[in-house]
Amino acid sequence: MWSTHLRNAVTRALLPLSWRIDSQHAARTLKRFSEVEFDSAWQYLNALGHTRVPKMQLMLFENLLEEMEHSDGFLEVAHKLARDRFQGGSGSRSVLVKSANDIHYFLAFAHESEKAICAQFNGYARACSHLPAAAEVFRGIAIDEEKHEREARASLLAVVGSETIVRRLVWKVKFKKAYASWLRGSQHIGDAIFTLWLGAVYLLFGPLLRSYCAARLTKSTQVQVAEPAQNPLRPTLES
Ligand SMILES: [Fe+2]
Ligand SMILES: [Fe+2]
């Protein structure tokens, strides 16, 4: 929970300025949200094909329609703010439901993800108050996300019939998400350490090797000037 508050505080502090300076950056961020919403819609559609419970099918279908609307809403406001044309599409997708057995985990995942996205969108709505159209889209979508969060949990409880199992599944999702974030974070830290090491190597050995490299370069240039390449097909003046 503290990480959500921290992220929202950072968003609120930095977003107004960065979006004011660079509207293309704002448009790109909104387009990314549109892609995330589109992916949510796809996940609901995919899950729909793996359940025969009518009530759950209805909930999944309604949510998929709303996610499509969210995707459209973000894309529309992104196009309004964009100065240039958008580039390429989004990356690959990891499929959350591959069989009926995955539905319980998917509902727990949907509950947790909708909760996180709702908090994030509320944070963005507050941070971009200088862009009323974008703030309105964020606020409207956050209301739907809160509903999705509640519905996913209620559906999960209805199918598993136990609060303990629901809580266990939600903790499993939390753990997997935290592990995935840690992997992403450690990769960035690894990249940063590598860059620092590389910079240190250049700083230490660069001055030592500079004169050697300059000498080698001068020598090879002199050789090329002294011995121009002969084209065997070109006739010489003597012939
Ligand atoms: Fe959504
Ligand atoms: Fe949602």
In a nutshell, what does this entry contain?
The protein has helices at residues 2-21, 23-48, 54-81, 103-127, 132-160, 163-226.
Explain what you see:
The chain has a domain at 2-161: Ferritin. Helices cover 80% and strands 0% of the residues. The protein has helices at 2-21, 23-48, 54-81, 103-127, 132-160, 163-226. The longest helix has 64 residues, at 163-226. The chain binds fe (ii) ion (2 copies).
The main sheet comes to:
none
CATH 4th-level superfamily of the domain at 2-161: Ferritin, core subunit, four-helix bundle
H and E order = HHHHHH
Task: Report the top-level CATH class of the domain at 2-161.
Answer: Mainly Alpha
What class do helices, strands and sheet pairing give?
Answer: mainly alpha
Please give the alpha-carbon distance between the first and last residues.
87 Å
Specify the number of helices: 6
Using the 3D structure, state the CATH architecture of the domain at 2-161: Up-down Bundle
Strand content: under 5%
Radius of gyration based on Cα positions = 28 Å
Q: What molecules are bound to this protein?
A: fe (ii) ion
The global form is elongated
Q: How would you state the average pLDDT, rounded? A: 87
* Helix proportion range: over 70%
Find the count of extended strands (DSSP E, 2+ residues): 0
CATH topology assignment of the domain at 2-161: Ferritin
Low-pLDDT regions: none
